[in-house]
Amino acid sequence: KASMGTRRVLVTGCSSGIGLAVAARLAKDELRRFKVVATMRDLKKRGPLEKAAGDSLNKTLEIKELDACCEASIKECVNSLPNRRVDILVSNAGVGMIGPLECQSIAAMKELFDTNFFGLVRLVKEVLPDMKQRQSGHIVVMSSVMGIQGLLFNDVYSASKFAVEGFCESLAVQALKFNIKTTLVEPGPVMTEFERKVYEDAEMMDLSETDEETAKIFREVYLPYSKKVFTSLGQTTEEVTEQTLKVITAKDPPLRHQTNRLYTPVTALKHADPTGRLPLDTFYKMIFKHDNVLNATLGVLKSVLRTKKIQPKL
Question: Which of 74, 124, 138, 231 has a CA that sits 20 to 30 A from residue 90's CA?
Fold first, then answer.
């Protein structure tokens, strides 16, 4: 039973990565503020979560099946909860995709949108009416800095996160009228299995559908550049999880929260120049022109990180 003091949190995509870490962290909350319903599409993959949950398993954390791509599955999961009560939704299920556009099938893109965008829409559609009725709730969405600023060879993934941001930004206004909070958590690069898998797939990718120069840019410029950015600026799942916990427990949670302070200048460029020339130019130069400038910048940021272990203010 979730008593008045404890809030029930439904987390999706908990078989690995950020979803797993967030579910386990909330379940182990020292103040026992949460009852966690940790969900995943395939319960056969529950092992790592059970391990991470430890003693909290079947006490403050229960594992349920939920496929964000299936309305019936979502309804069944929510129906199984006492009074269908979800105080906090953490929508985290997602898939990645990188590479030249010509090498990606429309079917794969639709599949990505079905999870990254429509997955969120289906969840919100299911829990929002009850939240409105109770005049309380918090919808927390794992977005990405790529939902603010597009990045080379991340065209479709970025588009899905832009869709998520537009959806939440619009909905937040209506939700507020019913005392429901909305927060987009926007990590930069995070070192997880998810990212590792995306990059592994990229290295093996069949690039025969694109021209030689694009293939070369992807292999010889983008992939090494990405690795550099990850090793210099990448956050751990633990860091992102702590930031998410802060957002969930905040008295007045923000609509947007970037977890990585080092990334804020990148997104600030966009607001600094309404014509869009500044970010376009900066990214172009960073990637194609100034390898040494990039290396120097990353080096400086890395040392700042080490000395300060910067955390964004909430």
Answer: 231
Mark out the alpha helices in the chain (DSSP H runs): 17-27, 47-53, 71-79, 106-116, 118-134, 155-177, 193-204, 212-216, 223-233, 237-249, 264-272, 277-284, 291-308
Cα–Cα distance, 274 to 290 (Å, whole number): 24
| CB 171, CB 124: distance < 8 Å | yes
The reply to whether 18 sits in an annotated binding site is yes
Tokens of 278: 């500044």
Residues with Cβ < 8 Å from 8, sequence gap 6 or more? 2, 34, 35, 36, 37, 81, 85, 86, 87, 88
Q: How far is CA 203 from the centre of its chain?
A: 23
At residue 34, the 3 state secondary structure works out as strand
The verdict on whether residue 32 carries a ligand-binding annotation is yes
What global pTM score does this model have? 0.90
State the residue for tokens 């299911």.
126
* 144 known member of a binding site: yes
pLDDT truncated to tens, each residue of the chain (314 aa)? 444 579 999 999 999 999 999 999 999 999 999 999 999 999 999 999 999 999 999 999 999 999 999 999 999 999 999 999 999 999 998 888 999 999 999 999 999 999 999 999 999 999 999 999 999 999 999 999 999 999 899 999 999 999 999 999 999 999 999 999 999 999 988 887 777 888 888 888 899 999 999 999 999 889 988 888 888 888 999 999 999 999 999 999 999 999 998 888 878 888 888 899 988 888 888 888 766 656 666 666 666 556 655 455 55
**How far out from the chain centre does Cα 183 lie?**
11
Half-sphere exposure (Cβ direction) of 260: Cα atoms closer than 13 Å: 27
Q: Which residues are catalytic?
A: 157
94: left (phi over 0), alpha (psi -120 to 50) or beta: beta
Tell me: is residue 178 an annotated ligand-binding position: no
